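user: At home tonight, take the chain set out below, taking as long as you need, and be ready to discuss the fold:
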Amino acid sequence: MRFLKGLILTEQNKSAEAISVFTKLTEDFPRSPEPYNNLAVLFAATNQYEKSRAALEMAISTNPTYATAHENLGDVYAKLASQAYDKALQLDTSNTAAKSKLILVRTLVNNTATVTAGALQKDTASPPW
């Protein structure tokens, strides 16, 4: 029921409350990857990509075959790469390699479903809550 509450809060754009629910679930059920994944989605939605990455790595450590978390982690890495290339260009505007890579990463991020585009785990059939 708490997992569903977190999903409902997310749907209602009550991110802080949803984060609280999913955080508590990770504490109560540390071997369940779904709450970590959902935390990651919420963090990514507010550009907190390092927190999102850490949550996804926890999800994967609890279940290495959790495909959704792997996909979301790829999306987060793409966002982090975009930020890094952008910073490189701020420091050296003549860096053509960074410009090319930034264009490629932004194209990739804009043409795929990102972690913020609804990759919440909604299946509550197998989790222990």
The two ends are 7 Å apart (CA to CA). The mean pLDDT is 89. Residues 67-91 form the longest helix (25 residues).
